[in-house]
Amino acid sequence: MRIGLIAGSGQFPIIFTKAAKEKGYAVYAVAYVSETDRELENIADAVQWLYLGQLKRLIRFFKQNAVAEAVMMGAIRKTRMFT
Predict the structure, then answer these.
(1) CA 79 vs CA 17, 35, 42, 67, 75: distances in Å
(2) pLDDT digits (tens, 9 = 90+) for 21-39
(3) pLDDT of residue 14
(4) How far from 12 is each of 41, 60, 64, CA to CA, in Å?
(5) Residue 75 DSSP one-character state
(6) How far apart are CA 34 and CA 9, in angstroms?
(7) How far apart are CA 64 and CA 82, in angstroms?
(8) What secondary structure letter does DSSP report for 1?
(9) Mean of the pLDDT values across residues 65-71?
(10) Residue 44 per-residue DSSP state
């Protein structure tokens, strides 16, 4: 089983990934530069680092890894969304 993760900042993406892996999921994560904790690279099956707004790259990453379902975890600073 595969699941996608759109990971913001904070510990929720890490907690989610560990729990999903314990339940047998392969986790394919999209992480945001200057937001997501780098620890995610050590536990997710694959991580694609993006800048905010790179929606096509996000979709391509999930398609390449046969991910049909994804969740969003963590925060994105509002000030970064508008720069």
Answers:
(1) 26, 12, 28, 30, 12
(2) 999 999 999 999 999 999 9
(3) 98
(4) 14, 24, 25
(5) B
(6) 9
(7) 29
(8) -
(9) 97
(10) S
